[in-house]
C-alpha cells in the first residue's frame, strides 16, 4: 500500500505564477506550454504518478485553483 | 484507472473554502493577498462564525476584498479601518470584527488609528500585509520599504537619511498593554501558510476572551512592484525581508 | 409632560441623544462644544440604555467610528467645532457616499485656521456646498435655541434614516453655550436589530445570516457607468429632500417692506431688530432658514414681489447671503451685514443699517463689521 495523490487544477482560473511548483516536494507539477483562455501558462501535473497528495501546492496557491485527493492504493 | 479511484469525494483532502466567492481575484499572479484571503475565509468557515463576522477592508490593492469573501463588510477610508472596527465591536461585543490593512494603510496614513485602537485594547483582530511597497498606486515607497530598496519614489534606493528607516510597527504595537497577541508570519511556503492559519484561528478565537487586540503581520510579496517573478519574489523576501522583519510570535498573552 | 429644566445648548444635545435612543456617540474635545462629550460621559448612558460613548483619539477617528457604527444600522452621533469638522470632511464624504445615516453636530467658531474659540457662522459653505470631496449633500438643521438643540437630535435621526443620509446640526458657540429652559423629549428605548431591519430595511452590516446576501458598506465603484448611475441616484435623493424637507420660520413677513434673512444666533438678533423697527414704524420682517440644506429658496423668492429689499445677517464675511441672492435673482437689492472673528451682530447695529438702507446711506460706514450690497 502506498499513499497516492491526485491534483485537479481549474485551468481557466490559474494565473501560472508557479508558486505551487516551487512548493511541490515531488516535482509533480509543471507549467504547460499552451496557455489558457486568459493567456497564462497554467499549472498541470506533469508527473501525476509522483503525487502524494500532500496538499502543499493547493495550500500556497494564491488563487485557490487546486483541489487535492489522497488515498492508499 | 488508479487516478479515477483516488479522485473521489471521500478522498478529497483540500478544496476551496465555501466562503470564497466564485470570482477571479484581480490580483497579479502569485500575489500574497490571494493566499491570505484564502486563510481568512478558511478561518471564518472553520470557526463557523460567518453570521457573526464583520470585516473592514482597506484602501490599497485589497480594496475589493469584500468581493471575495462571503461575509458582511465595511470599506474604510485609507488608514481608518481600526476606527470603524472600534465602533462595530463596541456596538456588537459578541461579534467577530477584523481589519485587513496594507503597510501604507496601517503603518503610514493610519498610524494614529491603529496605535490607539490597539492601546484601547479593542477586541478585534488586525491583519497587516507588509510587502514593503505601495502596490495599487504603482510601486511607490512604503513605510516598510527596506533600506536600499528601489521603488518608483526611491529610484536610487531608500536611504534613511532622506526617508527614514523601515518601520517595525508590529514590534511597536506589541509594546502596548492593550495587545494580547502580536505575531509575524508569511505565506510563501506550505508550512508558512499552515503556521499563519494557526495564528488566524488563535487570533479570532481570542476575541471571545475579550482580553485585547490580536495583531497578525504577514510579510508578503509584491512581485509586480518588486519587478520579479512570483517565485523569485518569495526567495527575495526570505533573503531580504526576513532579516529586517523576522517571522515568529512577538507577544502572546492568550 | 416631561420635565422642563435649565440647560446649555450643548448639554441639551447630549441629553436628547440619550433620550431618543441614540446607540453611540464618538467625539473629540474642542471648544466650544466639549460639554456634549462631557455631559454624555457624566450621564453614563451605558448603564441606562446601553448607549456607547467613547472619546476618540482625533476627529478623524471619531468620524470613522461614526462610519463603522452607522454601517451597522445604529443611531450614531458625533460633535465638533469648525477646525474639527474640517478634519472630519473625509469621513463625512465617505459616509454620504456609502449612504449611511448619522448626526454630526457642528458648534461653529470663527476661522479660518485655528481662528478663535468665540462663536461664528463661517462654515455655511462647508456645510451646504461640500466640505469634503465629491457630489454629496448633508441635510443641515440650524437650531436657534436650546430647545431646538434638543428637538433637532430626534428630528435629525428621523431624517437621516428616512433618506439614509448624514445630517448636520449646524449651530454656533452662543447657542451651544447659552442656557435656556428646555422641555425634554420623552425617553425612548434603543431599537433592536430586528426593529431596525423592519423599519429601515436589511442593509446594515451586522454579520451575514443565511437568509440574505452579504451587505457591504462602501462608496467605491470602479465602473464609470455605475458610478455615474450612483451619482444620478444621489441627485434624485437630494431633489426629493429639497421637495419634502424645507423648513423655515417667517416672522412678521406678511406686510413687510424689508426682510431680514438670518439663521441661528443671527436670527435671534434679527428678531429683536424687527421688533425695534416695528416700534419705529418700519415694516420689517424676518425669514429664518431652519434647514440650510434644503434651503428655503422659494420662501424667499415668494416675498420678492412685495418687498423693497433683503438684508442678510451672518456671523461670517458673507456666505448664506449668496443663496439669498440666488433666490432673489437680481430682482430686488440684497444687502449683507456680517460680524466675524467671534464678534456678534447686535439688534441696534442691524437696525441702524436698516435705517441707512431706507435713507439711502447704506455706504456711510457707521456700522461696524462687513457690510456690502451684493
Features:
heterotrimer, A: 73 residues, Alpha-Beta Plaits, two-stranded antiparallel ribbon, 14% helix, B: 254 residues, alpha/beta, Rossmann fold, globular
Describe the structure.
The complex is a heterotrimer of chains A (73), B (254) and C (374). Chain A contains two helices and four strands. Chain A has helices at 19-23, 56-60, and strands spanning 3-9, 29-35, 41-45, 66-72. Chain A has a two-stranded antiparallel ribbon with strand order 1-4. Chain A is elongated. In chain B, strands 3-2-4-5-9-8-10 form a seven-stranded mixed sheet, with helices on both faces. A two-stranded antiparallel ribbon of chain B has the order 6-7. Chain B is globular, with a radius of gyration of 18 Å. Chain B has a single domain, classed as Thiamin diphosphate (ThDP)-binding fold, Pyr/PP domains (Rossmann fold, 3-Layer(aba) Sandwich). The termini of chain B are far apart. Chain B has helices at residues 2-6, 32-47, 81-91, 103-109, 111-119, 160-163, 169-174, 190-206, 223-226, 230-244, and strands spanning 12-14, 53-57, 72-75, 96-102, 125-130, 133-134, 140-141, 179-186, 213-219, 248-252. Chain C folds into two domains: 4-193, Thiamin diphosphate (ThDP)-binding fold, Pyr/PP domains (Rossmann fold), CATH 3.40.50.970; 249-373, Rossmann fold, CATH 3.40.50. Helix content of chain C is 42%, strand content 20%. A seven-stranded mixed sheet of chain C has the order 3-2-4-5-7-6-13, with helices on both faces. A six-stranded mixed sheet of chain C has the order 10-12-11-14-15-16, sandwiched between helices. A two-stranded antiparallel sheet of chain C has the order 1-8. The model of chain C has no long low-confidence stretch (mean pLDDT 96). Chains in contact: A-B, B-C. Chain B binds chain C through residues 50-54, 56, 63-64, 66, 70-77, 80, 83-88, 90-92, 95, 112-113, 116, and chain C through 23-24, 26, 52, 54, 56-58, 60-62, 64-69, 71-72, 74, 76, 90-91, 94, 98, 205-210, 214-220. Strand 4 (66-72) of chain A pairs antiparallel with strand 1 (12-14) of chain B, so a sheet runs across the interface.
Amino acid at each position: 500500500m502506498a499513499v497516492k495523490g491526485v491534483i485537479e487544477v481549474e485551468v481557466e482560473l490559474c494565473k501560472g505564477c508557479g508558486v505551487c511548483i516551487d512548493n511541490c516536494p515531488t516535482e509533480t507539477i509543471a507549467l504547460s506550454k499552451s496557455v489558457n483562455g486568459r493567456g497564462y501558462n497554467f499549472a498541470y501535473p506533469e508527473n501525476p504518478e509522483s503525487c502524494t497528495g500532500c496538499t502543499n501546492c493547493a495550500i500556497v496557491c494564491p488563487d485557490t485553483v487546486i483541489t487535492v485527493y489522497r488515498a492508499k492504493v | 484507472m488508479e487516478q479515477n479511484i483516488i479522485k473521489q469525494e471521500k478522498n478529497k483532502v483540500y478544496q476551496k473554502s465555501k466562503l470564497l466567492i466564485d470570482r477571479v481575484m484581480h490580483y497579479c499572479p502569485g500575489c500574497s493577498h490571494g493566499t491570505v484571503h484564502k486563510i481568512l475565509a478558511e478561518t471564518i468557515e472553520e470557526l463557523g462564525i460567518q453570521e457573526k463576522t464583520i470585516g473592514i477592508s482597506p484602501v490599497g490593492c485589497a480594496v475589493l476584498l469584500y468581493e471575495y469573501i462571503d461575509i458582511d463588510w465595511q470599506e474604510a477610508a485609507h488608514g481608518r479601518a481600526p476606527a470603524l472596527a472600534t465602533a462595530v465591536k463596541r456596538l456588537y461585543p459578541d461579534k467577530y470584527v477584523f481589519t485587513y490593512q496594507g503597510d501604507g494603510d496601517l503603518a503610514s496614513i493610519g498610524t494614529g488609528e491603529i496605535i490607539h485602537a490597539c492601546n484601547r485594547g479593542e477586541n478585534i483582530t488586525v491583519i497587516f500585509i507588509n510587502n514593503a511597497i505601495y502596490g495599487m498606486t504603482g510601486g511607490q515607497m512604503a513605510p516598510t520599504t527596506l533600506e536600499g530598496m528601489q521603488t518608483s519614489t526611491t529610484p536610487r534606493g531608500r536611504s534613511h537619511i532622506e526617508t527614514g528607516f523601515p518601520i517595525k510597527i508590529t514590534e511597536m504595537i506589541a509594546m502596548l498593554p492593550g495587545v494580547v497577541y502580536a505575531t509575524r508570519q508569511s505565506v510563501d511556503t506550505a508550512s508558512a501558510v499552515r503556521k499563519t492559519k494557526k495564528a488566524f484561528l488563535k487570533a479570532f478565537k481570542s476575541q471571545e476572551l475579550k482580553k485585547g487586540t490580536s495583531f497578525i503581520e504577514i510579510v508578503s510579496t509584491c512581485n509586480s512592484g518588486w519587478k520579479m517573478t512570483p517565485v523569485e519574489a518569495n526567495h527575495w523576501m526570505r533573503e531580504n525581508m526576513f532579516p529586517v522583519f523576522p517571522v515568529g510570535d512577538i507577544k502572546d498573552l492568550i | 409632560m416631561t420635565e422642563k429644566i435649565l440647560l446649555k445648548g450643548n448639554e441639551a444635545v447630549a441629553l436628547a441623544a440619550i433620550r431618543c435612543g441614540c446607540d453611540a456617540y464618538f467625539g473629540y474635545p474642542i471648544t466650544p462644544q466639549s460639554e456634549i462629550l462631557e455631559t454624555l460621559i457624566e450621564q453614563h448612558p451605558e448603564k441606562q440604555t446601553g448607549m456607547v460613548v467613547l472619546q476618540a483619539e482625533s476627529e478623524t477617528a471619531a468620524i470613522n467610528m461614526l462610519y463603522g457604527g452607522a454601517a451597522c444600522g445604529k443611531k450614531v452621533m458625533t460633535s465638533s467645532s469648525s477646525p474639527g469638522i474640517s478634519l472630519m470632511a473625509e469621513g463625512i464624504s465617505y459616509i454620504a457616499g456609502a449612504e449611511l445615516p448619522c448626526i454630526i453636530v457642528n458648534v461653529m467658531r470663527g476661522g479660518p485656521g485655528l481662528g478663535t474659540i468665540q462663536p461664528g457662522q463661517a462654515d455655511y459653505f462647508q456645510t451646504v456646498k461640500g466640505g469634503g470631496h465629491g457630489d454629496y449633500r448633508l441635510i443641515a438643521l440650524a437650531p436657534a435655541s436650546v430647545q431646538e438643540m434638543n428637538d433637532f437630535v430626534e428630528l435629525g435621526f428621523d431624517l437621516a434614516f428616512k433618506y439614509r443620509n448624514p445630517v448636520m446640526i449646524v449651530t454656533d458657540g452662543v447657542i451651544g453655550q447659552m442656557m435656556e429652559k428646555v422641555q425634554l423629549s420623552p425617553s425612548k428605548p434603543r431599537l433592536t436589530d430586528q426593529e431596525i431591519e423592519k423599519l429601515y430595511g436589511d442593509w446594515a452590516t451586522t454579520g451575514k445570516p443565511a437568509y440574505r446576501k452579504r451587505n457591504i458598506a462602501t462608496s467605491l465603484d470602479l465602473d464609470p457607468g455605475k458610478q455615474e448611475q450612483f451619482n444620478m441616484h444621489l441627485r434624485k435623493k437630494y431633489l426629493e429632500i429639497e421637495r419634502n424637507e424645507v423648513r423655515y420660520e417667517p416672522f412678521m413677513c406678511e406686510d413687510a417692506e424689508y426682510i431680514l434673512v438670518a439663521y441661528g444666533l443671527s436670527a435671534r438678533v434679527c428678531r429683536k431688530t424687527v421688533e425695534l423697527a416695528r416700534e419705529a414704524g418700519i415694516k420689517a420682517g424676518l425669514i429664518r432658514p431652519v434647514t440650510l440644506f434644503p434651503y428655503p429658496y422659494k420662501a424667499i423668492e415668494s416675498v420678492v414681489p412685495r418687498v423693497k429689499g433683503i438684508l442678510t445677517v451672518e456671523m461670517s464675511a458673507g456666505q448664506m447671503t449668496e443663496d439669498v441672492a440666488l433666490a432673489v435673482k437680481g430682482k430686488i437689492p440684497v444687502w449683507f451685514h456680517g460680524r466675524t472673528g467671534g464678534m456678534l451682530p447686535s439688534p441696534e447695529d442691524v437696525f441702524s443699517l436698516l435705517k441707512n438702507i431706507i435713507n439711502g446711506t447704506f455706504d456711510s460706514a457707521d456700522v461696524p463689521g462687513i457690510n456690502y450690497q451684493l
